[in-house]
């Protein structure tokens, strides 16, 4: 099919404010330039602070220590931890040495962690005290995984810690040199994503992919600078949420880190440190609009907030901006496969419901149902290519080929359009991925776990609308003959294998069969209709009860 270049939308060209170098070199050079006594990271719970000088010294010592321990370029390490001021010390140290890093959810089950780590051939794991017991359990029957280091442990603990490395290793921050790597081909992050369908796949992100994403946290976009303070409560293992940390190290911003979202802790830190910019998810915007706690705190320091990971309504954004005067809220859109933002809505935009314009180095096209190129205001599948797009999935040539076409455009599975001014709008999605509170959940993965139960014959999973969560996970199962299994028993069974955010909290419905299409694939549209029908019946029963009380 001949390509009409006039229907390809192009973002701004890369102005080259950041050198085309390894991420390790960019960060090392940036850390050296900043005021070494200035606060870089703050623990929002304990108040512990790290200066730029502290981060420089610790990362160089750890990078030196990793070499002494035998880790080399292209090895893979995993970080399994909640947010902390220590989280990015191993990430930066690994980038200095050309080591690949995979970021995993600390709430993952042992079953999930082992699966991801075996796929990645992990040589070493950095973890927090919260996740160390699960990791040590895995070590008992996994001989190849021998190296473990605690991020938040003390030197007295019975396992290797960061503090031990700092005391035992000499590292000269002025003379230290990063490992030479080709930023265009060297993998920096290996992130797990479900892509447009199927089980989680390893997304390969190069140093150059990440470099351009970091640029987008600087001039013209988030505009991070050395006078900024951001409060951060979103999980670091999500690609979009890595950006504020990089902005901190590159552009000199201060970052206040919270391990998890706790309403009063979140609000009090915004007030205490006078945060002016943040990246949050729509659920937090909803909280800041509806929570009775919000008026008790002075949040007027906030000037710019970007929201991501799920759709957000124009009405909600308007209410937020009325409540917190002077703060603009704008949406952005991206994927794990794009190393972050593909589009960002500028603060000057009048289109509150738009996810913005294309970011630096990104091209886009919209395809109709027959694969034809569409123009402005025509709805179709959104496809992108550019400097920040992944080169593919690890050890999965078939999935890579299915996602990236011959013109190097990545097919997102999301449905949307752009207007005459180049603003993009996401209106729906054709992919099956369920978005629960900003998390992406593969229904196939949940179905696979449900089918591990010997009393389940078939299973199907869909997302159902929910105001607070975006979507709730709802499961349908066909029981084996004579099975007396209850919904609670199957739910409890799945909780042994799945993280809390992957559990079918939208209910488990027992049915006689799972609807399928002519190709034998689960018909998720029919499953959603079944849920709606069951929900309407339940409402009718409740109305009858209430009328007759």
Description:
This protein is an alpha/beta fold and 549 residues long. Helix 2 (52-68) packs across helix 3. The chain is globular. The N and C termini lie far apart (66 Å).
Short description:
It is found in: Peroxisome. Its EC number is 1.13.12.7. This protein folds into 2 domains: 13-413, ANL, N-terminal domain (Rossmann fold), CATH 3.40.50; 434-547, 2-Layer Sandwich (GMP Synthetase, Chain A, domain 3).
Largest sheet: 6 strands, antiparallel
Report how far the terminal alpha carbons are from each other.
Answer: 66 Å
Give the C-level CATH assignment of the largest domain: Alpha Beta
What is the CATH-assigned architecture of the largest domain?
3-Layer(aba) Sandwich
Total beta-strand segments: 26
CATH topology name of the largest domain, in short, is: Rossmann fold
The tally of structural domains comes to 2
| Computed Rg | 24 Å
The CATH homologous superfamily name of the largest domain equals: ANL, N-terminal domain
Mean pLDDT: 87
Shape: globular
- Could you say which structural class the secondary elements and strand pairing correspond to? alpha/beta
Approximately how much beta-strand content do the residues carry?
A: 15-25%
Parts with pLDDT < 50 across at least 5 consecutive residues: 544-548
Could you estimate the helical fraction of the residues in percent? 25-40%
Cofactor: Mg(2+)
Pfam families: AMP-binding, AMP-binding_C
Protein name: Luciferin 4-monooxygenase
Family: Belongs to the ATP-dependent AMP-binding enzyme family.
